[in-house]
Amino acid sequence: MFNYIENVFPQDVIDSLHNKYITVKEDDLLSYDIWPPLMTENNTLPVNYTERISKKDKLTVLSLLFDNEDSPFYKDTRIRYTNIAIQKISPGSKIPRHTDTALGSLTVFLNKEYDTSNGGNFVWWEDEESKVSYSVIPKYNSGVWALYNEGDVLPHEVTTVNNYHRVSIQFFIWGKDQDPTVKYAPEKENAVH
């Protein structure tokens, strides 16, 4: 099950991350080049962008998640095996319903002013058959996280974004022997990351 959390990082840290990563840059990676076809609906969605987070920022956020007693990742050594990137979803685009293959994930929202008219909500279901969904507006410095148990299937999506880029810090937690370069699991049609 996904969980919602507010005030993920101290104000000075989240403000620094916002200022550094909120804009689309010329050297950002294009979703068509690095995302599996499912995530771009075979390159029919507007292009999205991914920016690599600096090593210094990675160490800062991982330390905060590991050392903070209120963090869902408090003293969880699995966060040593985490890929972190800045995701920038373009107006008119979305992330289709899918499941992740990582051991856990965290999405932290970086847009300071965001409301329901902007779309880009994070939506999840309890399982593949569930008709009940949960939706989170991407509020600044809030997040959605999950640690998966063996066999968990947690379908989720990002609804169509309107007006401006929806920017988030995306964490994927991998096992010590898991290969994080595998971005697509063909045995599960809708499994990524």
SSE topology sketch:
Elements: E1 3-5, H1 11-21, E2 29-30, H2 31-34, E3 49-52, H3 55-67, E4 82-89, E5 95-100, E6 104-109, E7 122-125, E8 133-136, E9 143-147, E10 156-158, E11 166-173, E12 191-192
Structure description:
This protein has 193 residues and is an alpha+beta fold. It has one domain: Sandwich (Jelly Rolls), CATH 2.60.120. It is built from three helices and twelve strands. Strand 7 and strand 8 form a beta hairpin.
Summary keywords:
single chain, 193 residues, alpha+beta, Jelly Rolls, 7-stranded antiparallel β-sheet, 15% helix, disordered C terminus
Structure summarized in a few sentences:
The chain has 193 residues and is an alpha+beta fold. The protein contains three helices and twelve strands.
> In CATH terms, what is the fold-level topology?
Jelly Rolls
Q: Could you tell me how far the N terminus lies from the C terminus, measured between alpha carbons in angstroms? A: 17 Å
Determine Rg (CA atoms, Å): 16 Å
Name the quaternary structure.
single chain
Shape: globular
The CATH superfamily is known as q2cbj1_9rhob like domain
Question: Low-confidence parts lasting 5 or more residues at pLDDT below 50?
Answer: 182-191
Which architecture would the CATH scheme give at its second level?
Answer: Sandwich
Instruction: Let me know the largest β-sheet.
Output: 7 strands, antiparallel
Q: Share of helix among residues?
A: 10-25%
Please state the structural category: alpha+beta
Q: Mean pLDDT score, rounded?
A: 87
- Individual helix count: 3
Order of helices and strands: EHEHEHEEEEEEEEE
Name of the CATH class: Mainly Beta
Sheet-strand content, in percent, reads 25-35%
Strands, total number: 12
In total, how many domains does the architecture comprise? Answer: 1
Spatial arrangement of strands, main beta sheet: 1-9-6-11-4-3-2
